[in-house]
């Protein structure tokens, strides 16, 4: 059911333009019919096609097992019908070109050049059918009424089709933004992931405008995380990481970056900060984690070991800066965990 609903997107999107296009396309053909000897039967066919077919085509797509394929076949029917009615009015130049051109625009938007070529063949088949069945006289003359009947189709239908294409482009742009955001986000915590953190650091060290002057980077290890997983299960471990995420977010400022560096390690980049202020922020994280380290619902929440490094001459690259913070973090772990240590 999910795939059918998803594949109904295109038939839904083309339903209204088809109603508009065929409603407007009725008039150029109708304006040419009174002078023809077979105008009665062709008018009946025209009425059924222009005002009944859009709804039938949508219904067929809706009840079909493969709505997208059904819609493509319906668009070939449109091309066949356009050729037939162009032939039925004796290939009257402006009305014939108008209705076939509008259908060709549809086909190009639907399936590109190849599908447009298939539509052109269908239109030629429709024109041949009209020529064989009706033997229409060639209509070289063109009245003002016939020209006027074509104008709404030639003006309004491209606008409606353009709007459909605009909707598709906007939806695609939104999906690309979502994918880009997902590629930079850790799915469990919603934090910036390691790849995105590395990109931030690489950009900062390669551009003077985004240099890390007056910044501090910190690596944060969740103490005893393996024991939490082993004793309470991986879901409890996930909840512990999410709780640590909440604590870090509550402590940082708008200009700072918080990310999950991997497993049970997090990374925080504090910007526009001196060492004492950075120490206060990181100590607050550690203290909040310690306050919450008592058992809740039978689960123990972790404390934090934090290693920090202020930006300085020794940090010649993002990797070197991270290494300094990593060394400080291991000093914190060796010193008994649950503490903040700055790199010398």
UniProtKB/TrEMBL annotation:
Q: Does the keyword Cell membrane apply?
A: no
Provide the alphabetized UniProt keywords: Membrane, Transmembrane, Transmembrane helix
Q: Name one GO molecular function term.
A: diguanylate cyclase activity
Q: Where are the transmembrane segments?
A: 15-36, 43-61, 81-103, 115-134, 146-166
Query: Which positions are tagged coiled coil?
Result: none
- InterPro entries assigned to the protein according to its UniProt record, in alphabetical order: Diguanylate_Cyclase, GGDEF_dom, MASE2, Nucleotide_cyclase, Rev_trsase/Diguanyl_cyclase
One of the Pfam families matching this protein, by short name:
MASE2
Note the superkingdom of the native organism: Bacteria
What's its catalytic activity?
A: 2 GTP = 3',3'-c-di-GMP + 2 diphosphate
Protein EC:
2.7.7.65
CDD domains xrefs = GGDEF (cd01949)
Sorted alphabetically, which PANTHER family does this protein's record hold? DIGUANYLATE CYCLASE DGCM-RELATED, REGULATORY COMPONENTS OF SENSORY TRANSDUCTION SYSTEM
Q: What is this protein called?
A: diguanylate cyclase
Its taxonomic path starts at: Bacteria, Pseudomonadati, Pseudomonadota, Betaproteobacteria, Burkholderiales
């Amino acid at each position: 059911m999910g795939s059918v609903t998803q594949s109904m997107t295109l038939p839904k999107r083309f339903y209204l333009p088809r109603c508009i296009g065929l409603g407007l396309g009725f008039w150029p053909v109708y304006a040419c019919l009174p002078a023809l000897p077979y105008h009665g039967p062709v008018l009946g066919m025209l009425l059924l096609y222009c005002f009944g077919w859009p709804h039938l085509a949508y219904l067929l797509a809706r009840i079909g097992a493969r709505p997208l394929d059904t819609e493509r076949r319906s668009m070939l029917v449109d091309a066949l019908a356009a050729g037939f009615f162009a032939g039925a009015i004796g290939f009257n130049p402006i009305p014939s070109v108008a209705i076939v051109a509008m259908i060709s625009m549809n086909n190009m938007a639907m399936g590109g050049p190849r599908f447009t070529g298939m539509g052109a063949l269908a239109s030629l088949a429709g024109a041949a059918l009209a020529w064989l069945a009706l033997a229409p006289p060639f209509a070289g003359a063109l009245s003002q009424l016939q020209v006027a009947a074509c104008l709404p189709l030639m003006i309004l239908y491209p606008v409606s089709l353009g709007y459909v294409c605009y909707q598709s482009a906007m939806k695609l742009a939104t999906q690309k933004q979502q994918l880009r955001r997902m590629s930079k986000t850790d799915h469990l915590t919603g934090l910036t992931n390691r790849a995105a953190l590395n990109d931030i650091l690489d950009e900062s060290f390669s551009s003077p405008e985004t240099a890390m002057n007056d910044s501090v980077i910190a690596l944060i290890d969740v103490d005893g995380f393996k024991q939490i997983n082993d004793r309470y299960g991986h879901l409890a471990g996930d909840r512990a990481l999410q709780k640590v995420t909440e604590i870090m977010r509550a402590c940082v400022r708008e200009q700072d970056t918080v990310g999950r560096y991997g497993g049970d390690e997090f990374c925080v980049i504090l910007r526009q900060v001196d060492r004492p202020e950075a120490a206060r922020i990181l100590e607050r994280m550690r203290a909040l984690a310690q306050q919450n380290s008592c058992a809740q619902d039978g689960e123990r929440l972790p404390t934090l070991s934090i290693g920090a490094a202020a930006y300085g001459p020794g940090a010649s690259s993002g990797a070197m800066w991270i290494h300094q913070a990593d060394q400080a973090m291991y000093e914190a772990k060796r010193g008994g965990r649950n503490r903040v240590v700055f790199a010398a």
